[in-house]
Fold this protein.
Amino acid sequence: MTAAAGGGPRRTLETPVEFLTGVGPRRAEALRRLNIFTARDLLFHVPHRYEDASTVSAIARLRVGDDATVIGTVVSKGVLPTRKGLRIFQAVVQDPSGLIEVGWPGQPWLDRQIQKGDQLLLSGPVRFYHGRQLAPREFVNLGPDADPTGAGRVLAVYRATEGLSFKVIRQLVEKHLDALLPLVQEYLPPALLAEASLPPLPEALRALHRPTSVAEAHAARARLAYEELLFVHLLQRRAHALAKQARDGIVFRNRKELTTAFRAALPFELTKAQVRAVREIVADMCRPERMHRLLQGDVGSGKTVVAVFAALLALENGYQVAVMAPTELLAEQHARTFDALLAPLGIIPVLITGGRSPKERKLAATRLQSGEPVIAIGTHALQEERTQFAKLGLAIIDEQHRFGVEHRRALVERGGKGEKPDVLLMSATPIPRSLALTVYGDLDVSILDERPPGRQPITTALRPESARERVLGFVERQVTAGRQAYLVYPLIEESERSALRAATKAFAELAEGALAGRRLALLHGRMKPDEKDAVMRRFRDGDLDVLVATTVIEVGIDVPNATVMVVEHPERFGLSQLHQLRGRVGRGAEESYCILLGDVGPEVAARLAPFLETEDGFVIARADLEQRGMGDLFGERQSGVPMFKVADPLRDEALSEVARAGAERLLQSDPELRRPEHAGLRETLRRSYGRAMELFRVG
C-alpha cells in the first residue's frame, strides 16, 4: 500500500484483504478459500441469492404461518435453558402496533450483541410456540437510533466458508463498500452498455451489494454476467479469426460429380437441416481458410449422411479422407454404414484399427501411401506414426468430446506435402443453439435439429416397482418374438450404503429367475476394453438376447434388433443421459420401448416429465441444464475458455446473443483492442484471463 497525504495507508482495489479493517489473519485465510485475496475480489464477490425483507408488516397483523418482515424495538431479552440443555436466546420486540416474541435456539451469544432499545429488522416464519413467535431466518441490528417506522431492506446472501458466515461477509462488504466504489471505473464502451440496457459498473456493484429492490439486484447481476459473456465471445472470436488467418487450407472445387451421384442414389430425401449443413460445409471447404466446423445433431438426425457428402467432395478433388471414432466397435459401425451408403458409387472404405491383422494393416498402409483417393475409417490407429496419408484432405472426428486436443492434432498432422486437412468434428450430444455458439465459439457450428421422416417414435413410460413382474414379462415376450433388450442399472455392485439394485446382482437374479433360459450377458465399465467389445459384438450379431449393463452403453453401436430399454432407478440419471440411453433402441423397423422402472416421488416424477413427453434431444438438453445447471456437461474444453462465475449461458441466452454481437463489432473495428478507449477493457481481460490474452498480441 502507498501512503496517503496524511501519512496513513491509502486503500486501493489491489490492497490485500488482510489489511482491510475487520479482517485480520484468520479471516483473511478463510476469505482466501473463497478466492478473495484483494479488496477488488471482495467487491466482486457476488451474492448468490437475496432475502427480500423490503416489505415491512405490522406486528399486530402477523398470523401463525405467515412469512414476514418486521421492524421493532427490543423491550426485553434473555437466555432460556431447556431440559435437553439447549440454550435459547429470546427477545420481545415492539412496533407501534404491538409485540411479538423472537427466538434463536442454540445462539446464546446473541445476548451480548443485542441490547434493550436496539432496533431490529427481522425476517422469517411466524410459528406457534406458547403463542406467536417469529423464527428469524435473517435479522439486522439497526442500532438504538434507527427510525422504528423505517423501510425494509433487500439483504444479500453470500457464498460462505467454514469459519466465515455469510453475515460476516455481508458486514465486511457493507463496511468497505462506500470507500471502494469510488475507486471503480467503467471499462466497457458506453455504446455496448446502452445496447444491452445495463448500468455502469460502479452503479451495478452498489446495487449488487446494497439493492433497493430484488429487480435492481438482478439488473446489477446482469451487468457482470454480460461482461463475462462478452469476454468469452471476444476471446473465442479472436481465436477463431487468428486460426483462420494462420491456416492456409485446401481450396476444394465443388465439382458436383460424386456428391450429385450420391444424392441421386439416396433412397430418401434429405431434411432441410441436412441440406443447410451440407451447404455450410461445402462453402467452408471451397474457401482458402481451413475448415474447422462442429456438426452437432441428435441421435438419428443424419450426421453420417452429411459427413459422407463432405468426404465425397474431398475424394472428387483427388484427396484422402480420415474418419476417426473413439472405439473399434464404432469404427466398424461407421465402416459398415459408409459401405452401404457408398455401394451405388462403387466406393469401398478401408478400415484401420488396432485389431486388424498385420496383412490388413499393410494393405491399408499401401493404399494410403499411394495417394489414391480413399476414405480411411478407424480409431486412434489413424493418428499413429505408422499410418501415413499421402494426400489427406479431410479429417472427420466422431464423438469429438472423447478425444483430447493432442489426438485431434496428431490426426490432422498425418497429411503429406505440408498440407493441413479440413476438420469436421461430430457430436451426438444435443445442446441449444445459443449455448453451442457460446461454448464452441472458437468453431463454426452446424446443427441438425430435424429428424428424418419415417423414423418410428419410441414408446416411453415410467412404471412403479410393483410393475416389475409385468415389465420383465414384456421383455420376455419381446425376446420370444426374436427381439433383443437392454436392462440398465446405475451401479455395478451392491454397497452397504445403497439399496439400489446393482447390475451384477440383477444379472444373477434374472439369469435364474424371470429370464432363465435366455442368453444374457453383463457389461460394465470395469471390464477390460477387449472384454466389453466381445460382449457388444455378440449382442450386435444376435448371439445374446438381453444385455444387463451400466451406462457404459450410453454411447454405443447400432443394434437395429434391440427394441426394449429398461432403466432401473431412473432418479439416479440426468435427462440427457436417459436420452442417450433411449437412443440405443428404435434403430430398426420394429416398434421400440423405453421403460423407466422404480418408485419415485412427486419431485422426481416432475423432473422426469420432459423425458417422458418428448424425444427432442434439444428440448431435453435444455430441461436438463435448467435442472442441474451447467455442471461438467462439456468436460475439459481444453481451449483456454474460462469457467463462468456469474453468467449462465442458458439462463442468460438473450444477453449472450447481445454480447456476441457486441464482441464481433468490437473486433471488426479494433481487432487487437489497441485503441486508447479500449485500454481498460484490455487490462481487465488481461487480469481476468491471463494467458488467453496472447490472442491479442500485436502481429
Remarks:
- Residues 1-8, 631-642 have pLDDT under 50 and may be disordered.
- The first strand starts at residue 2 and ends at 3.
- The chain is about 35% helix and 20% strand.
- Residues 186-246+660-699 form one domain.
